[in-house]
């Protein structure tokens, strides 16, 4: 896809230089809004408003919604009031609300002054919900039907009002604003008799979410039931909007990226990598790095505490990295698996006993296998191949035994911390590798020196 | 959701005990297939076939498609040939193909013998495509129209054939089996004149994927353009199927889970956590653990090489865990960010110079901040608070300088390895934290002892 944008962008630039506006129009009309937006962001800033004006009205609004905020701002500043009014009122309400949230105050003021009263009211309706709630991502543009309507009347209503709706394929049947059923266009079209009332074919077992439901739950609910759109109701069961599948996909991708960033010890970022500068990246990465570095004071203290023992048996030092890394890897395998299962809703806190027991079994298997392999490695590679005769069989035993215990500790810490975090209402994702590594490091060193002290000195 | 299933499951069990079949039917009809499937998997195995028989035909097929493979197999073994035939032929073809892939050979044979010839042909069509290709996840049940049809004729065709189609909302216009345009039900309904030919309102700029396109690309393309379904064409441009948005969401979730598993040093698993036993988990986790453990031989060798120096300055050992962990964390921040951006298509290999430059800047900022903080920490906490007077200012300087260099190395390794992997056609996700940690460990120890040797001995 990216390849295509690059090639096209050269052509467009040449055509703009030659002022071949009709040819440009002919080209633009063949492209999807997402592709036009991609081309725009490759072009020189001053050319974008010119090209944007060549788009037909509807395509212009759709392209505008696909642009990154910095390009949206650039365009708004370049458009006349009349042009801006046309774009704003053509946008879907949820896209307009997103725009308002991203723009600086003076631009927001100008946008709202150009929005027609109905649009302004609906934007404000969405903006009053907390960030990441169903209310904040929904759109108010859905088709509502009355239960007494016939299918013919319902289709007539879709025809009359559907052009501005984000989806027409699922319609919502309301009575005194309460959501009492859903009916799909498919069911209406496939019904032989168009005088059947909507109430006779509607599905009364409505799955809906509340305006305050977390957006991740919204996306998972939609995905679970394979819905094109999920209705959003207020505290009194009144229908207020819908979240469509395309927005749910965006939420899933965004939330997963956030989880992944947290698991790698970063603060989640709203910007894409290429849009972030080094300072942004620094600010998102330094807090955890600094915290974890300082907390390594404990591992330092443990080593200092056994300093005299280590001075006598320096060979023990050589195995510290291997033990620590294996502990860290074992722990992050467990924690990352549990965190992902929690965030997909596959695991609940009530599964904790099952999880702990499964991790203990796995840890025993991994521990025995690694300890065995480690023993063979030390005897064959370190002693025979590398000729490190300082390593006695007893030393090898101490290392391998520590290895097995470390794996067990790591898997236990790795599986319990995320579940405990979930239980107390924290985000399990921050309990991932870096955090667990620090704990496992300290514990495994204690085990190592404890066993070494008992057996070797 | 899980809470709800648990409560319901008790009620169903009691009603089954009392043989209240009509009440059970009344309850089941209020539930979505996904919820019925969730309830079934909580019930005792012998009760499921009984309850399943109470479902109306269409709901039975939809519920069946939502069940985990082990429950599907259980049901198939419990159903008569006639019952099985009804279920199989009611399934969407892509679900039927998924089923065939999961079942053991003797069950497959029975399923295919009950499928009607058309169904069998379409299943085989899908099964011949490579795993994870567009062809393997598509369904062949879409609405195709001829360009010369009027809208009225098109809607007539949807009414006649739509009941078996996975979606009717986007229809595909074909000529000699070639895909030449798409038209949505929305456009058809909103068009005033139903005698307009389809060719006049269809969108001729069709976005499609090839049967062999990777499923992750399919899902990303659908998400990029906000399509309800994406058409799949063969090498000659002939329309062969569609991938619907709900399957695309499943692919996105599945592929992300795979990436996360790989990033944490595990082989990706097809089973959910609760369905995997300890032996499954062991087999998926041990390969990377063993490989990384053995590769820690290098860090061991480096430490052994500087053994005499370490024996003289044992205090240096105390900082090894801190340096290694900070290196590992810095590296995994960079690698995980790059891997995610690559898998979302935000980065291409051609962005490599930009990425490297950005990571160098970020590393310098992080390195200076961490080195400064580390120096303060050593002087205040380790020397003054903990009274460790072995640590000279020069030692502190060596540690902090190594820290800054380690961060730089870690960020560079962390950003280049995933991009290099992508370039040579490897999966960038395996170049994540555990792998990079091992490399960064060795490099940072070399730097540490190198600087220490130069300045302290």
Question: Can you describe this structure?
Answer:
The structure is a homodimer of 457-residue chains. Chain A is mainly alpha-helical. Chain A folds into 3 domains: 2-130, Alpha Horseshoe (MgtE N-terminal fold), CATH 1.25.60; 144-253, Roll (CBS-domain); 296-456, SLC41 divalent cation transporters, integral membrane domain (Tetracycline Repressor, domain 2, Orthogonal Bundle), CATH 1.10.357.20. Helices cover 65% and strands 6% of the residues of chain A. Chain A is built from 23 helices and 6 strands. In chain A, the strands form 2 sheets. A 3-stranded mixed β-sheet of chain A has the order 1-2-3. In chain A, helix 21 (352-385) packs antiparallel against helix 22 (393-423). The longest helix of chain A has 34 residues, at 352-385. The N and C termini of chain A lie far apart (65 Å). At the A-B interface, helix 12, helix 13, helix 15, helix 16 and helix 17 of A face helix 12, helix 13, helix 15, helix 16 and helix 17 of B.
Question: What is the compact description of this entry?
Answer:
Chain A is mainly alpha-helical and 457 residues long. Chain A contains 23 helices and 6 strands. Chain A has 3 domains: 129 residues, MgtE N-terminal fold (Alpha Horseshoe); 110 residues, CBS-domain; 161 residues, SLC41 divalent cation transporters, integral membrane domain (Tetracycline Repressor, domain 2), CATH 1.10.357.
Tally of separate helices of chain A:
23
Strand line-up in the sheet with most strands of chain A: 1-2-3
CATH superfamily of the largest domain in chain A: SLC41 divalent cation transporters, integral membrane domain
Largest interface: A-B, 119 and 119 residues
**Structural class assignment of chain A:** mainly alpha
The CATH topology of the largest domain in chain A comes to: Tetracycline Repressor, domain 2
């Amino acid at each position: 896809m990216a390849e295509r944008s690059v090639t096209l962008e050269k052509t467009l630039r040449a055509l703009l230089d030659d002022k071949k506006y009709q040819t440009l129009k002919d080209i633009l009309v063949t492209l999807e809004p997402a592709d036009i937006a991609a081309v725009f962001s490759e072009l020189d800033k001053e050319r974008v408003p010119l090209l944007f004006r060549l788009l037909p009205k509807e395509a212009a609004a759709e392209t505008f919604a696909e642009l990154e905020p910095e390009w949206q701002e650039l365009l708004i500043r370049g458009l006349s009031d009349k042009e801006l009014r046309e774009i704003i009122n053509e946008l879907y309400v949820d896209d307009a609300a997103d725009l308002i949230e991203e723009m600086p105050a003076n631009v927001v003021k100008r946008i709202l002054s150009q929005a027609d009263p109905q649009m302004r009211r609906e934007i404000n309706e969405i903006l009053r919900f907390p960030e990441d709630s169903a209310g904040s991502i929904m759109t108010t543009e859905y088709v509502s039907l009355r239960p007494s309507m016939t299918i013919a009347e319902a289709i007539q209503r879709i025809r009359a009002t559907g052009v501005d709706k984000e989806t027409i394929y699922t319609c919502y049947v309301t009575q005194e604003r309460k959501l009492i059923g859903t009916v799909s266009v498919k069911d209406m079209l496939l019904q032989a008799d168009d005088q059947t009332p909507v109430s006779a074919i509607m599905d009364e077992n409505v799955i809906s979410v509340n305006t305050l439901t977390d957006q991740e739950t919204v996306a998972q609910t939609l995905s679970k039931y394979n819905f094109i759109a999920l209705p959003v109701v207020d505290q009194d069961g009144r229908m207020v909007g819908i979240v469509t599948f395309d927005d749910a996909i965006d939420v899933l991708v965004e939330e997963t990226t956030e989880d992944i960033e947290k698991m790698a010890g970063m603060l989640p970022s709203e910007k894409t990598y290429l849009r972030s500068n080094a300072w942004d990246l620094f600010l998102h990465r330094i807090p955890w790095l600094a915290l974890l570095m300082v907390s390594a004071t404990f591992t330092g203290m443990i080593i200092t505490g056994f300093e005299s023992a280590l001075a006598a048996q320096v060979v023990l030092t050589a195995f510290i990295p291997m033990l620590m890394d294996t502990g860290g890897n074992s722990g992050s395998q467990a924690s990352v698996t549990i965190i992902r299962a929690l965030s997909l809703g596959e695991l609940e806190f009530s599964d904790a006993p099952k999880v702990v027991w499964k991790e203990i079994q796995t840890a025993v298997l991994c521990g025995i296998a690694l300890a065995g392999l480690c023993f063979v490695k030390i005897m064959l590679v370190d002693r025979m191949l590398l000729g490190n005769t300082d390593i006695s069989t007893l030393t090898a035993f101490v290392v391998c035994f520590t290895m097995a215990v470390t794996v067990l500790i790591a898997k236990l810490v790795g599986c319990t911390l995320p579940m405990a975090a979930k239980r107390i209402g924290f985000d399990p994702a921050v309990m991932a590798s870096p955090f667990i590594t620090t704990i496992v490091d300290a514990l495994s060193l204690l085990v190592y020196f404890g066993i070494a002290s008992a057996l070797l000195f």
